[in-house]
Amino acid sequence: MKSYYITGIILSRENIGEKDRLIIFLTRERGKLKAVARGSRKISSKLAGSLEPINVVRGWINIGKTFDIVKGVEVLKTFPTIRKDLDKYLAASKILEFTELIVQENDDGEKFFKLLIGVITALDRYDTNIDSLLRFFWINIISLAGYKLRLNRCICGKESISYFSPSLGGVICRDCILKTDDTMVVSDKSIELLREYEDMKLSEAIVKDVPPIVGKELDDILERFRLYHTGIKLKSEEVTL
Ligand SMILES: [Zn+2]
Q1: Who contacts 55 (Cβ-Cβ below 8 Å, separation ≥6)?
Q2: Regarding predicted confidence, which is higher, 183 or 41?
Q3: How far is the CA of 227 from the centre of ligand 1 (A)?
Q4: Is the pTM of this model over 0.90?
Q5: CATH classification of 3-78 is 2.40.50.140, yes or no?
Q6: Tell me: the pLDDT tens digits for 109-161?
């Protein structure tokens, strides 16, 4: 039987049949990968404990007919702090869910894998500003998926901009607001910060402090842009405390 190895982070899993689980990985080698872990719902299963969402594993996979089959896994990382801290856990849930929906099977997984491992490791290890980490994640993942925000000039070329339109892909000028019906008024500070986030390193993002009012505006811009271009609504965002 043909087999291959992967290094991947577990995005989610779902029960199939009475004893099995379908595991969804983001792998470095093959983008998103779905594979069945046979018998992994049984308490005695060696695989069960290793195949928890967020875990990073090295996996040995057999090629199957409908789905490939997980034959063995070695756990590389478990991120214990995220599992103990509700705010961190909720942030990780959004990150994993969005990644699962935006990355396709056989996509070039390496760039998404690197982003995800970086963000999840930072979330686990440091006293992170979670809102800022999430902004870093949204800007980078939508850009990797091919939806880069246009932040320097309007579609008409003008540089005097004080509006944002998700459907027009970024900032727009006063003369162009009638070209669309989803114009948002945005402050100069927000635009400046979005530009900053685009070039920001992860190590800077986790300690970046943004005043709450501006932060709210940034999050609103990013959410509407992401929703318009990807159409992805997250179940994990419906959780409110
Ligand atoms: Zn314009």
Answers
A1: 9, 10, 75, 76, 77, 78, 79
A2: 183
A3: 23
A4: yes
A5: yes
A6: 899 999 999 999 999 998 889 999 999 999 999 999 999 999 999 999 999 89
User: How many angstroms does the Cα of residue 168 sit away from the middle of ligand 1?
Assistant: 10
Per cent of the chain over pLDDT 70 is 98
Give the number of residues written for the chain.
241
Average pLDDT over residues 186-206: 94
Measured in Å, residue 154 CA sits from the centre of ligand 1 at 5
- Lookup: tokens for 17: 């049949």
CA of 153 to the centre of ligand 1 (A): 8
Q: What DSSP string describes 41-53?
A: TSTT-TTGGG--T
Query: Rounded to the nearest whole angstrom, what is the distance from the C-alpha of residue 156 to the centroid of ligand 1?
Result: 4
Provide the residue ranges of all domains of the chain, joining segments of one domain with +: 3-78, 81-238
What residues are paired with 42 via a beta bridge?
none
Return the CATH architecture of domain 81-238. Answer: Up-down Bundle (1.20)
